[in-house]
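hey all, quick one before standup. I had two proteins in the batch that finished overnight and I want to keep them in one place so we stop losing track of which output belongs to which input. First protein below, input sequence then structure tokens straight from the run.
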Amino acid sequence: MCSMISSHHHLNQNNLLPIRIVSPGFGHLSPEVTERGELVQHLPYYFFLFVIEGFSQCSVDMKQLNVEKHELLFLMPHQVRQLPTSSHASDYYKLGFDEECLSRLPKQYPFLLNPLNRQKIHFSPAAAVRVTIIFNILSSLLGSTDADPEIILAHLNSLLTEINTTYFGSERQLSDDRLDKFIGFKVFVEENLTDHPTIRSIAEELGVSTDSLYQIVKYYSGLSPKEFLTDRLMLEARRRMHYGQKSSVKELAFELGFSDPDYFSRLFKKNTGKTVAEFFQDLS
């Protein structure tokens, strides 16, 4: 199956927005298009799977996740998704949209950075009803290619607000400033990953001491800031290899900002338990 949305105009469901919604009876691409796709996708867009009835499985960044009734799985751009070979849940919605849609919405949604490392969200029965209604409306709007983009975006805003509120629950009220600092930390890491920023430089950027940064990152991730940076770099290495970017160890090390390929190799083995060569071999 190929990407749900694309720069190719005919794959989007609205003439003016890069967005697509799929349910059991709506929005599926033609067999001619899906046959050209791959089972492993390096996502260029935001992806949501909401299960209304039944059960579904999805592999994200080489981890198997089960999605059950009233649960929503969300993926961010650049994550690696392996499509299931088994059937989907009996009733579900899938939604895909890119940064252009997000940039036209009235606010930011911190859950999209996944600061609490919860890629799956469970809704209460009442919230699940509201989310289902919003998906229904979006599906109805996208049934016509010339639906008003502003109305689509208004309902997308409502959906993301529901998801954001459920994602954080009471956590945001309990420790708003600390959580904001952790979100800032994650944003800085994503934007400067291959520059290998020092912990001191990140702390200065966020206006906190290195001790405070350690406590915040440890609280929300279970890792020290240095461990977090290393894990994120090694995940990026695995993503690039898993998606078929089979460059040499030296090239991969340089792409990720390592000046010493041997050090990168040792770090990869320590972090994953496998050498780069063994990881490549498992993929073949």
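OK second protein, same deal, sequence then tokens:
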Amino acid sequence: MAIPLPGEIGQRARDVLAGRVPVVPARDAATVVVLRDSPLEVYLLRRKATMAFAAGAYVFPGGSVDPRDADHAVAWAGPSPREWGAVFGADERTARGLVCAAVRETFEESGVLLAGPGATTIVADTTGDDWEADRLALIAHELSFAEFLDRRGLVLRSDLLRPWAHWITPEIETKRFDTRFFVAALPPGQRTRDVGGEADMVAWMPPAAALDRAAAGEIMLMPPTFSTLTEMCEFGAVGDVLRADRVITTIQPSAAEVDGEMVLIVPDAGQLAGQGDGGGGR
């Protein structure tokens, strides 16, 4: 699929391809597709129009890896960082950071916490002033994820996550991310909430409904989000998604000049209607 790159982004694409401007390094990041049943729905956030990356787009919870996410002090249950690294083609330290970032960012951006008092238990409720204080402290980097889990006597439950995809932002972008996508079920008893921050709206939507709204121009979806939602349409229930046998292949859209016009080539992303210019992130 070729997406037109008009105006300034098109000129930047030409400059990058010609070597006139440097390529910005991609930062490690994690995104989690939170799912619930009856019918199958995904949790989406609309990024504020003032954001430097993907402004106004509907995205899944996620964000950059904090250096402290790779801390060995993070209490852990489930598949090890080494096992996750094998799945995503990453070294053990990077994989540890990715999984921790996935759980931390999901809590920060939705209030959903994939952790519990033990390896077979999970927090039933994350509402209340004390939870909100901890969430805000995590966002402000006043509290590390390891400290947060320790003070609450919790362990990260990596077994509640499943790997889904790997997208890297095109080299033409000024902000770039090397993003691993995970999927997870909304834990029993927990509920999402509008937590503010980088988002100005949140919603649960069936994947097909989100795609229909994008096609109608009602919402904007980045290519990775569009592609993921398209894949989710193949499933009828959360359990089906979690049981899917995924082989993770890295996808990195690239710019090219076609008939004198700059376009973004997005491999294996389907009919990308109603999406933004960038091809990496959420």
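Flagging for whoever picks this up: Residues 269-277 have pLDDT under 50 and may be disordered. The chain is about 30% helix and 25% strand.
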